[in-house]
Design goal:
4 copies of one chain form a homotetramer.
Chain A: E1 2-7, H1 12-21, E2 27-33, H2 42-45, E3 70-73, H3 80-89, E4 93-96, H4 106-113, E5 127-128, H5 131-139, E6 143-145, H6 149-163, E7 172-178, H7 193-196, E8 201-202, H8 210-220, E9 229-235, E10 242-248, H9 257-264, E11 271-273, E12 291-296, E13 305-311, H10 315-329
Helix pairs in contact in A: 1-10, 5-10, 6-8
Chain lengths: ~350, ~350, ~350, ~350
């Protein structure tokens, strides 16, 4: 059995990793860390894991981590980067679900995250863990930068068009909406129930940290012209789910786009291109590792094509994709431990 | 006291009219109709109105309506048009909250609503009841076509720029989100709690009935070029509220737009242009007749300006705006009966 | 105009006071305090109050409070008691919405609130501000202890029966459910959206601070035997509302109970005894100062009568009742500023 | 592979069966019926099942059902009873998730369900499928009456005490709360999002169909005296979950009750007796087949012990328990296909 550990196991991403890894047939969950809950039994902090996880939380610096074959970091940004170099040296493989290794340009990273990077030398070694883009590189990687939730939903929705140069790179709008768990599990006034429920808002319109991550990927897969993406995130009063509404300008044949997408993702187990004109909802991917995409061509030449993309932010947008990456690195079936249909309702 | 009646008083718009009119100092609510609940006491159907409304529901064709000075139609589309001509003749003033008189071109109306219009001759007589646009015409009108909820939020957000030709009319995107009460109060599977809660989706991407209504207004206030608007509505798991995210391309000076908006609406009691860069949420207008608007200029020349606009769909998007129109027609303070701040939370 | 101030105006109870007082015809809102937001404009902290409240937050110890005729404390417990004595001396009338003056026995208070009381000598001077019980005393009071939200819903549901000795005092169960705003407006993990939404739980089963408050009132109005009340509070994933399900054992005639309740509250503007067998919901009292009560006698002698009671925790359970008390103290119509029907939906 | 079919596969219970059975290692899902969606692909009606279920809906009377080893009825009451006799004859084993076979007394059943029973002769043959009570009988059964959701949560919470005569049978209160999916998947006004969201209510206080089912079980396991249970169901604005708050009067030793419960359920995989004084929430069992129970003894002799019990109404309260029953009938590990921890959030 592969031994795995989760660092920062008390956030929503961390709990989701524990939930999925505790039932993954190829791995044994041996360490869960939390500096705040150190010494407590996992089952006492998370009753949902009673009878499923029989561990005590240890600190992030626990020696037990060394015994792991795989370590998942589900920590806030600017945490993993202090631990990863040493753990890599000790032979662990790392999948970092935070932002620490997602941006390959350290200057850009520091600009958005307002802290010096602790190991910029690893940025180029880290593989951006979007399997549908980087499957081959992931196989051989030791360090995975697991994509952000918005970037996963948006990038999967744009990738087939961008790679082939089928849309105008200078005019892309991503109007994205996220459930509240995307804000993390911490005491904050802005995400109190009564601040969020029965309300809807945009936030960070002037710039969100996921923007440079998306731009980097889009610019990496095309050479035409710098991508010009307008990205506006919104907060939805629901727990899970990301919904991205993309407005793109096809260069020629808007009608052919759907077919291209369907072909592009035909072999993917976790990307479902629905019939043209479909209206996916986030519920259809709840608790799954799937991304559903649907295209709506404009009614005339001058109108954009609308692309809809939905994921579960905690699964395909975080813990599930991380396990998908681990499965690839281990040469396993990519869907091991990730095969459930959506939870309705 | 002005005598008022509400036809179709059992939908969410109808209940909201009863709630607001029952406390309006200048009017007496004398008739509430419902074909389905005919004969029942209003208080038995809506316990929230116990001690406030002491009426029995009568049918839509009740003779009592003739005694009203003002009649509000809160019926589904293609209902008011069968009753309005006769009531107008009898000297009643009509405010129709349905779509029957919103589109001045009967062919266009029939194309979207799939039924022959019963009184196309009244379409040009009807005044589109957006006070911020048509205040003078409203004063003298006998028949008001009260705007739809999406059109109110979107039009108020575009009006100052469109009237002055400050944005490119050929490239406007309106990504709009609505609470579930916008779908009306009726037994429908798609709006069952467990179909909607904890989910988010777009709908009617290929075309929504509010699109021609918005287009008509935009094209009426400018002559440059036919507006090209992409409108995508979404359903938010909350009761009330519309949030519109507009992406527009300023022709020259994106930075000057905010100031123009602030000046344009400076005298309006129900349009609040917030400081540039603000993030209004729908909760801030809950149970109010206000529209809050905020502008976010793009970070570079080629990026769109993002305009955010929020209303309560049942108040400024329906019942409140109808009463605002009535106040104007009666020469009263426009805010009479509509002055409460937002309900938080 | 009566000058009023609100101390602690940034909690949900405080915001609700600002909302209601800003439109109250007999008063002028002149001070709003917040130690945390001191110096900021109210409208910048609460956009819902833009165009309605034109004040800057000052500190709790601001000299401006002296100029107020009425001061509402909407602070956490163990705050008002440090300020009230001096303000009373200066001739202000005080309505404290916190728990500081609710329990007349200081030892009992200190046991539940774990702090020494700063002015135990005022405890007997304070009048428990439940108008339906203490209207006469409230008229002449200088210091009102405004009831808690659970106690309001539960006490109003028991009062008519307890006063007349119609139920067994030794066996009363209050299974109560509250919306999340009852937990206050503060950054706390337990009331984060994703901790609360789509979940339901009991809390404080071993003892909640509202229990001694309810017991005190019940024991004050009857002499038979010490009340034995089991009170279990639950958290509902909604913003507003308290629902109390009471199980009581009528001593004789369970069927007569409803009639007694209807008569008891016949003159009350804010207590609505619904027809026997009704099912009130919290939505019917949303944003109102009303309490709706319905009785369901047991199907046999040995079964309890079920009494259902609903209020809006922020209005009748806090800010609205406080204003009702102020209206009484001022000799005004009790419903001034509080007359709106429930907001549906 | 065992061949299984689901009759009535478009309700929430039906979808949940499809979701769980499609990933169950020992069975092959070969038939899904729906009279309303007959002829449509399952994946078109439920996009969440795309890539997971490759069937077309057939009618309830499809000949394909005969080929099934196991048939699950997830139909409304008074449907299964018309199909079951013939299918039993053909050798199928039946698990009926509706109420048709839950009450062994046909007169009582007919009184509550207001229709003549079509096969009263099968009522005694049917085994009440609560594994923790009837595991041995289930093993050999051909026809299982799968318990209702409320009865599952309430019965599991009472069983250990009732069987041993540890509580007063004449005075039990079950204040129960259910998520909205319990009302089924159908167009109904009362369960529209905007009727339910942000509201809380009791319903059917005068009598709910699950009452006789609970009473039957309680009276079957004890002989002392007829159980006198007051059962009040409430509707919670959430999708999934049942929360039962039980008030019982221990005959002697309230403190010993917890230990007895812990021992009673020690070997059960799906009943989790938490430490005394715990506060389980419904989220902790979301999407699981578990029931969590916690006891709170009264603070004095005359106070009831409070027992809290939570389940997911669609899993342990319906589809999961049905599969648990099937596993038992097949001699498989009871938890096959049912082992996931709770989905948080």
């Amino acid at each position: 059995m592969i031994k795995v550990g989760v660092v920062g196991a008390t956030g929503y991403t961390g709990i989701e990793l524990l939930r999925l890894l505790s039932k993954h047939d190829a791995v044994e969950l041996v360490v869960a860390t939390s500096n705040a809950e150190k010494g407590k039994a996992v089952r006492d902090v998370f009753p949902s894991l009673r009878m499923h996880v029989d561990l005590e939380f240890v600190g992030h610096d626990s020696e037990l981590l060394k015994s792991c074959d795989f370590i998942f970091f589900a920590t806030p940004h600017a945490t993993a980067m202090y631990h990863v170099p040493k753990l890599l040296e000790q032979g662990c493989k790392i999948i970092d679900l935070s932002a620490d290794f997602r941006i390959s340009n350290p200057t850009l990273w520091e600009q958005w995250y307002q802290v010096s990077h602790a190991c910029p030398e690893l940025l180029n070694q880290a593989v951006y863990g979007l399997p549908e883009l980087n499957r081959q590189k992931i196989k051989d990687a030791n360090l995975i930068a697991n994509p952000g939730c918005y970037p996963t939903a948006i990038t999967l929705a744009l990738l087939p068009a961008v790679e082939k140069g089928l849309i105008n790179m200078g005019d892309i709008i991503a109007d994205a909406k996220s459930g509240v768990s995307g804000a993390g599990r911490k005491a904050a006034l802005a995400t109190q129930f009564s601040e969020v429920s029965e309300s809807f808002k945009a936030y960070s319109v002037s710039g969100h940290r996921h923007l440079p991550e998306i731009m980097q990927t889009l610019n990496n897969v095309q050479t035409e012209s710098e991508a010009n993406l307008t990205f506006v995130p919104h907060l939805v009063p629901m727990n899970r789910g990301i919904f991205a509404t993309l407005y793109v300008k096809p260069i020629e044949n808007a009608e052919g786009l759907h077919e291209h997408y369907a072909a592009y993702y035909a072999q993917e187990k976790f990307v479902d291109v629905m019939p043209q004109g479909s209206h996916p909802n986030t519920a259809s991917v709840r608790a799954t590792n799937s991304c559903r995409i649907a295209l709506h061509p404009g009614k005339n030449q001058s109108q954009p094509t609308v692309i809809l993309s939905v994921i579960d932010n905690l699964v395909k947008g975080a813990a599930g994709q991380a396990i998908q990456n681990m499965n690839i690195m281990l040469g396993l079936d990519e869907s091991l431990g990730l095969a459930m249909p959506g939870l309705i309702p």
